[in-house]
Amino acid sequence: MNFESFREKIAYQPILLGVFALLASGALAWASSATGDAIAAAEAKDLRDSLAEVLPQGMADNDFLKDTVDLKKGEKTITIYRARKDGVVKAALFKVAERGYAGDIQVLMAVDSEGKTLGVRVLKHAETPGLGDKIEVKKDKWIKDFDGKSLGDPAPEKWGVKKDSGVFDQFAGATITPRAVVKAVKGGLEFFAAHKAEISG
């Protein structure tokens, strides 16, 4: 049987398609294997850089990416990164989220062993540019107002924006956004307080 007559057979196209599919899947598997380690390393570096942004320098001597505990908050699982100094847990770093004006606002925060915020940063949001994006530290210093705060400072009823009789500034035309961040940070502190023993190990 020559090639021309084989091409006319009905099985020719499925066989050819199968060969190409096999080659393509092999190439994809090779590419995934070759780049997987590099992607994982880049993601780990990004996460480490973000965590270091909310944790004061010199406060930890461990690799907090490898010192974690997973805890439940409602239906969600929160990963806690523990910052240790000389083996003692000095701070917990974790992400929380609340619904803003245009979607969820993801907040990263560091809390010391006494339940005081060391730093807060917004990691992800879809708020209106020029209004709600003032929650980003590169756009405004507003987010730094949370540094040093705890559930007792301010008092629980004062954890809100000024429009709601709280102590935190709101933005003109964008009250929903800062209100969501305040709620997220307060919720994060309450979560830390409820799980302090588990976090401290």
Structural notes for this entry:
The protein has 201 residues and is α+β, with helices and mostly antiparallel strands. It contains 4 helices and 5 strands. The protein has helices at residues 3-8, 12-54, 176-194, 196-200; strands spanning 68-73, 76-85, 88-99, 104-112, 117-124. A 5-stranded antiparallel sheet has the order 1-2-3-4-5. It is globular and about 70 Å long. The mean pLDDT is 87.
Secondary-structure map:
Elements: H1 3-8, H2 12-54, E1 68-73, E2 76-85, E3 88-99, E4 104-112, E5 117-124, H3 176-194, H4 196-200
Antiparallel strand pairs: 1-2, 2-3, 3-4, 4-5
Summarize the model shown.
The chain is α+β, with helices and mostly antiparallel strands and 201 residues long. It has 4 helices and 5 strands. Helices cover 36% and strands 22% of the residues.
Beta-strand residue fraction:
15-25%
Describe the biggest sheet? 5 strands, antiparallel
Task: Please list the strands of the largest sheet in the order they lie side by side.
Answer: 1-2-3-4-5
Structural class: alpha+beta
Please state the overall shape, judged from the principal axes of the Cα atoms: globular
Average pLDDT confidence is 87
Q: Secondary-structure element order, as H and E?
A: HHEEEEEHH
Number of helices: 4
Number of strands: 5
